Amino acid sequence: MHHTVEVKNLRFSYPDGRQALRGVSLFVEPGEKVALVGPNGAGKSTLMLHLNGILRGEGEIFVCGTPVADENLGYVRAAVGLVFQDPDDQLFSPTVFEDVAFGPMYMGLREEEVRERVTRALEAVGMAKNEERVPHHLSGGEKKRVAIASVLAMDPEILVLDEPTAGLDPRSRRGLINLLRDLPQTMLVSTHDMHLVSELFPRTVVIDEGLIAADGSTSQILSDPVLLELHGLEAP
């Protein structure tokens, strides 16, 4: 059985010379829901962008046992559903249907199959019957849901979410937490929302200055005030 995600000694520097990742190793098992926490600039987003080959550093990354390499990018990008912090980066079509259908159509699926996937994905995020709406008229919470649906329609093995609750009001946030709890996918979620972490993720990985500072059960990590303070985190 493969790890769903396997990162070995990943290093990455931006063109300006800033070292964002300084030897990160991480394994995520099938079905695991893992929180990735740390201060701004710790390397969380940089790490996530490596998982589907948008950024390429030194080291090894495997997704479902397949190396992230040029010849496998099609497979890797179908397997890793990446949801950006700002849904406006992800939603660009005139209707919700077209946004959610974009991935499956790009995969070359039949129209019938595309429609089924769109319907299923929108149902999964509680946005059924919204196909004809204009994405930029949606509320922040609705946009997040459609961005997640657009990734679910690709039927990924793993969901990688960057700050999923950022900018949401309490009710949308609660809805999103319930949604994520019910999804069966393996998840790696970067967040500053420590309540979200304590509610949803059995395992937490702390990253700071491009290195993994701690990796263990969420209850253990959240009950260590010294560790939290050291890495700019607050207990919920």
Judged by helices, strands and strand pairing, the structural class is alpha/beta
The main sheet orders its strands as 6-7-8-3-9-10
Q: How large is the radius of gyration?
A: 18 Å
**What is the β-strand count?**
10
Strand content: 25-35%
Number of helices: 9
Ends distance: 35 Å
Average of the residue pLDDT scores: 94
Helix content: 25-40%
Strand/helix succession:
EEEHEEHEHHHEHEHEEHH
Largest sheet: 6 strands, mixed
Low-confidence stretches: none
Q: Judging from the principal axes of the Cα atoms, what is the shape? A: globular
Descriptive notes:
There is one protein chain. The chain has 236 residues and is of the alpha/beta class. The protein is built from 9 helices and 10 strands. It has a 6-stranded mixed β-sheet with strand order 6-7-8-3-9-10, sandwiched between helices. It has a 4-stranded antiparallel β-sheet with strand order 2-1-4-5, covered by helices on one side. α6 (170-182) links the parallel β7 and β8 (186-190). α3 packs across α4 and α5 runs parallel beside α6. The chain is globular.
